[in-house]
């Protein structure tokens, strides 16, 4: 598996562990977005990781559709402290500007991956600021679990 799959699988494993008693959804996106786990669905962590590893990673980056699908899942629960976590480099090249899709989220935290595009980092910062969430940046994919765990503890 490539670095993207490894990153996604690690991220989901950390989320599943930290949110085991909560409702959470997992949406992955490339050219299109895919809901890997619905918000009220109960599945084992290894099954969730398998779904990630079996998903199609080829294609472009459609953050807008990913946010739309994630927001639609979030609308299915009544909890007051609802939030989303977006893991991306911010360099979208399909689906248009993702910022209008923040309306689906009471709060959106952004974990920014390393990007070759400087504007992608600015998009990540904008999404966190406009989404009333936290912005965290990683220099290496190995930092994701630790930073994500801290973010989830603070939320």
Automatic annotation (TrEMBL):
InterPro entries linked: VWF_A, vWFA_dom_sf
Boundaries of every VWFA domain copy: 21-100
SUPFAM superfamilies in alphabetical order: vWA-like
Transmembrane segment boundaries: none
Protein name from the UniProt record: VWFA domain-containing protein
Source organism: marine sediment metagenome
Lineage of the organism: unclassified sequences, metagenomes, ecological metagenomes
